[in-house]
Target: N-acylneuraminate cytidylyltransferase/pseudaminic acid cytidylyltransferase
Amino acid sequence: MDIALIPARSGSKRIKGKNIKPFLGMPIMAYPIKAALAAGCFDKVVVSTNSKEFGEVALSCGAEVIFRPEELSDDHTPLAPVIEHGIKELQGQGHHVERACCILSTAPFVRPSDISKAKEMLVERNVGAVFSVTSFPFPIFRGLKMSEDGTVSMFWPEHELTRSNDLPDGYHDAGQFYWLDAAKFLSEKKVYMADALGFVLPRYLVQDIDTPEDWHRAELMYRVLQESGEVEL
Model:
């Protein structure tokens, strides 16, 4: 079976109750749940949480729930052990998990069509992982660092005179979803496998939400994307 696994722990410090905080009138966790359900490519959509309250919200949005221990729910827990726990919990219930897609709980811009297209990439290319990426808006090889006294210098001074259009594009994790071949993932226990492919998203669909300012910016972005039809929920 193919599963969507949405990690949603309680205990966020910068935005209290972040995973169930209303985002334009709906708990933010509801957006990835609804996107996963609408994608039509999952046998189960499951929220992994340490919170009874979060679990109840997940159920009301149409997801199933598994509870994970507190040692996998602190600020320093990486994503891979949470995914591993979710897969093994379902395996322990007698399910054969062939593929898992971890969708982040605070990803309101995730689109059902992108989820399903990324699955096609995973299957057709027979790789261990496909995850969302987006490009940096400026060439990373022209990046600057700043010392304690405020002076700046280039990370790669050899590119000071290189034209921007002669430099390769740089990409970063877009923080939306991670499709995984379950067997390969359980063997390697990491998301960034050697054969991982990037599913490229436009920058206007990507926004980390870590602070109240990020949250406000994301809501403004979402309203515009709704009006233009770029988001699907």
Remarks:
- The mean pLDDT is 95.
